[in-house]
Amino acid sequence: MTVKRRILIKGRKVHNVGYRPFLMERAQELKIPNFHAKNIKENGKQVVDVRVGGEGGRIDNFLKFVNENRPELAEVENISVEEKEYEEDIMTLEDFSSLLSALQLSKIVQAGLGMIEMQKQALGKHDQTLEKQDSMLDKQDSMLDKQDSMLDKQDETIAIIKTGNEVLAGKQDQILGKQDVMIEKQDKTLTTIKSGVDEMRESREENKTLLLDFHHDTIQRFDNLDVKYGKIAENMERILEELKEERKEYRETVERLVNAIIESRKEK
């Protein structure tokens, strides 16, 4: 007995996962003569609308397969079978196979045309890129020409600087030679001054020693006189003060003499 059934497979992802070829292959295995499947939408949900017709046992086996199997990428939420007898005509399995092949071929062609269009757009962008690259290369050539010109000017500047440095180096050598002569003269002058100062120091030390000896000797003599002669000691203190004044004057005279000697040596 021939039976017709309409099956609705609903879910988040039942389109474009190979559901129709998957079911058609099973229908071919079960030798179901009439088969049709199309993708539709109901209330925003993806639905595969399947219609089959054939011997009752084969249809039952097909329904069991539909409930227990699905393509790997499919996300099924509900499978329903209309209970009432489906009365509309269903195309033959061979016709649906040809139709599905034509539909898939059309998709392939559309996809190919889309790829060709994308390639054309990509080639257009590539041509634009090449034009931009050519423009950039022209600018780079211009920049390189400017750099060459700048390098030539730099070479000229370096040559001028080098010549100037050589002239300055010659003048510096002359100045250094004069400085060496001046330094030698300064060294001789300093040696002469040092010798005169050393002599002056020796003379002052000798005079200082003589004065100290005279002072100590005088003090000792007056101390002895003070012990022996009281009044004479008092008088001698007065005389000693006078001698101190004279010694001061003597020292000043000696210092003036030493300074005069130093000045006379400087003039020589």
> What is the overall number of helices?
4
Low-confidence stretches: none
**Rg over alpha carbons:** 65 Å
CATH class of the domain at 2-91: Alpha Beta
End-to-end gap: 156 Å
Strand tally, please?
4
Level-2 CATH architecture of the domain at 2-91: 2-Layer Sandwich
Report on the architecture of this protein.
By secondary structure, the protein is an alpha+beta fold. Among the domains are: 2-91, 2-Layer Sandwich (Alpha-Beta Plaits), CATH 3.30.70.100; 186-267. The chain has helices spanning 19-30, 56-68, 93-228, 230-267, and strands at 2-13, 34-42, 45-55, 75-81. It has a 4-stranded antiparallel beta sheet with strand order 2-3-1-4. A hairpin with a 2-residue loop joins strand 2 and strand 3. The longest helix is centred in the middle third of the chain and has 136 residues, at 93-228. It is rod-shaped. The mean pLDDT is 81.
